[in-house]
Structures are given as structure tokens and as C-alpha cells.
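Researcher: Good morning. I'm working through a list of sequences from a screen, and I'd like to move beyond sequence-only analysis. For each chain I'm collecting a predicted structure so we can compare shapes side by side. This is the next one on the list. No need for commentary yet; just the structure.
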Amino acid sequence: MLSVGLNWIYMLLTTFCTGYGIAYLVRKKLGYRIRGMDSILMAGLVAVTVYAEIFSLFHGVGAAANGLLLAVCGGVFFLLRRQIRQSLGEWWQETSAVKKVLLPVLFLLWAYFSSRGYMAYDSDLYHAQSIRWIEEYGVVPGLGNLHERFAYNSAAFAVNALYSMKWLLGRSLHTASGFFALLLSSTVLELGRTWKEKKLRLADYAMVGAVYYLVTIWDEVTAPSSDYLIMCTLFFIVIKWLLCLERDGSAAAGDRRTPYALLCVAGVYALTLKLTAGLILLLVIKPAVSLIREKKWREILLYLGLGLLVCLPWMTRTVIISGWLLYPFPALDLFSVDWKMPAGPIAVDAAQIKTWGRALYNVSLVDMPMREWFPGWFAATLSGMEKVLILGDLVCVPLSVGYAVFILLRKKWENLDILLILGTVVSSYAFWQYSAPILRYGYAYVLLVDLLTAGLILQKLPMQRILYALVCLYGGYKLVMMGDYIRGNYLVDAYLWQQDYGSYELVSYELGGIPFYRPAMGDRAGYDPFPAAPTEPEMELRGEGLREGFRPAQ
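Model: Good morning. C-alpha cells for this chain:
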């Protein structure tokens, strides 16, 4: 727990400095002030993640990467120290006394949750080894040939590697999931405004969904899974988007397009965390229409450039690891490199993900119609509350379609912004439900469809106070459950060091004179020893060492 807290202090300092530098440039060049400490920190997280990915193209992400990051942050702090001091002073004055108390409480709670808990199965399957490859080598050509899961290149692994501190501590921390949860928790403190207003606006419904998600994952965030980072990021984008819509009435013209364009850049970042989040980029319609109408060609080029800056290092890593631009989509066959993974196994891997998500467990059933697999999936994979949420979605999707038809037929153009955000989350939910509906892959979509649709309906009904009381009661119930969880886990020896990755019995074999490892039983290898993979692969070295990478066996 102590190691987690100290790690987060370092993360706060570096993401704040990088985020504040970005906010300063945005204010100077675009005339827009990024509001909120959480927004500055999110901008910093995007920046340091992209930095870690770029650095990984040339070197292992360890001491040198952190040294250069600290130098940049020191430069930003020195050059902008007066502005930083003023901004921190304003933030402190504007922050309520209750929030000043709750923020350190949240910090301690999430540090506790991140220090111990359930390690996701996939973390010991391939997340840990993926992070270690980034720590040790940065990126290696054809790494996906060692095991196909290594080709699932997520920016989440890069940010975990940057802040793992293996080079300093001799062990690899994995605290990014908890940090993203902490950041989202600070954002949903905005719900405190409902205490005075005794009503919920549409953004508040999204925040209620975020709270529900956060209290669902508190025992899991010790794992460096990309699922937690992407869900927290999606909630953050939708909440901030809705809050910006609330402020639009009093905003200047630039303020009515810049924040949305910046959130779309964050949407590109979400895609690099998990490719299946790509439909969040439907939101780009709003700022694109505004910029094109006003002929802001320089701004258009700027935002396109920022989007490319965010996604290009990620795509480059994917090509180097797998030989394909997007994995696992072999239809985009653009590169001819000797390390390219064979298309056949990629298609099988993609089919496995789909069939596993649908509770079919047989790749030959990948084309089974949804009407046939849905009942079995619904009955076998969901808890009681999860079934309620999915049933709610099945009701809310046609209601959302009806709402869209009503808006378009009645020409209520003032509601198009709400229609866009609703259409985005509904489309994202539909894609998730049809493809690989494992709930941890799509919790944000499932909750947002329910809650945004409910918000649109309930805002028109005279029952806001009753709904507010129900939210408070549910919050009280979850506080009791949280206390029970803490009481049941306080004896776990994780107050100094974070709970480590799992340990498994491995057997060694040689490839080109280099020792490799695979599990003696099962398919999980954990973090040590290295390099390890679930099975002994059919591949060969491209050179004399690991740095030259791997290619399919000839």
C-alpha cells in the first residue's frame, strides 16, 4: 500500500506537469482554458502514455525513460512555476471543504484496493510478460509469434511499464488501473452538486454509472488489465462531454468547439487502450461540423495532427509486434516483413475471443446467429444484477431509436447534441453485444445506455427527489459493502509492497541457445521467469538474441 501511494505521488507530479504544459499551450494557441484538475491530469496521462510508446520504439522503458520524463517535467515546472502556483491556489480556493477531505480519503481507499485483491486471469496469462518485454526491450519484431496474445498491443501496457519502477525497486509495480479509478472517482465528486439541487442532470446519470462501475471493480484494480483503463477513460469522456453541453449556453464560440475536439483526441487515446472502443470516435461529428462550417482549417489540421500523434506510435508498435496494422484484423494486409504472423492463426484467435465471449467455447460456432447464442450467454455468464442491466439495455435501445426518430421528424435540432452522445453509446453497446460480450470489456456501454436513456425520460417527470433519495440509499449500501470488504482483507500482507503477480511452476526449453519458459500445467506464467509464454511456439529467432525478434518457423 505504501509503495502504491508513493508511486501515485510520482504519477501525480509527472502527469500534472505534462498536463499543465499541454493546458498552457492550448490556452495560448487556441484561447481555451482546460478546466478542472482531473482534466489536466487526464491530458497528462495521454501525453505520458504516448511518450512511453514512442520511447519503447527505441529502448526499454525504464530508468532512461523516467529520467527524460523528469527532465521534461522539471523544465515545465521551472518555466511555468508562476502560472502553476496561481492555478493551484485558485483550485484550492474553489475546492469545497468536503472535497478537500474526500480526495485524500479516496487516495487512501484506492491505494488499499490497488495493493491487494483479485489478479485478473489474463494478467498472469500475458499482461505481465507483455509489460516486462516493454521494460526490458521496448518493442521486439515479431513478438506475437512467441504467443499471439502479445500482439494485443494496448497502450495500457506502456503506461504500466513506465511507472512500474522495476529499474529502481527490483520488482514491477502495476498501479495504473487504480490510478485511473482514482482519477475517475475525483471526477464523480461533481455529484456533490446534487446535494443542494436535489435533482440529477444528464451528466449526473453518467456519473452514477461511473460510481456503480467503480464500486464493482474495487477488488480487481491490482491487475494491470487494459479493461479498467479503457472503461474509466470512456466514462471520463462521456461525463466531460455532457458537462460541456451544460455550459454551452454561456460559453464563447471557441469554447463551444475546442473542448469537444480535445475530448475526441482523448477518444483516439481510448482506441489505443482497446481497439474495440473505436466507436467512441463517432463523437468527432460535432467538432468536425463546427470547424468545417467556420472554415477553421488550421485547427482542423491541428486536431488531425494530435490524433495522429496519439495513434501513430501505437500503430507502429502493432506493426513491429505482429506485422499487421491492426491486430487481429488480417484483412488489412499492408506490410511485407519476415516477422509477420500467419493470417490463419490470427483468424482463429479472433474467433476464439468471440466464441469465448458468447459462452460457446468452440471456434467452429463463430458464425452462429445471435438469436441462437444469446439465450445461453444470458443464462450462463451473467449474475442477477448483470441480467437486469442487459434487460434494461434491450429496452433502452429501441427507446433510443424512437427518441432519434422523434427528434428528426419534429426537427428539434437543439437536441442533436444529446442524440449524438446517446447514439454513440448505443452503437458502442450494440457492437460489444454482437462481437465478444464479456462484461468487463463493455461495462461502460452497458451502464451508459441504461442511465442516459433513463435520464432523458426521468428528467421530464416530477420524481427527481425520489430518484435522488434512491441513489443516496444505494450509495449507503455500497459504503457498508466497502467496509465489509476492507474488514475481510485487512490481514493481507500488502501494506508495504503491492501484491505481486502470481507464481507458477514453469519448465524451460531452449531456442537458439536462449532459455525460454512455459507452464508445467495450465497456461499462466506470471512475471518471472522471463521470457515465458503459455505454450512452446513454432517460431525461430531472427538473429542471435532476443532484441532482433522472432519470425514464423520456416
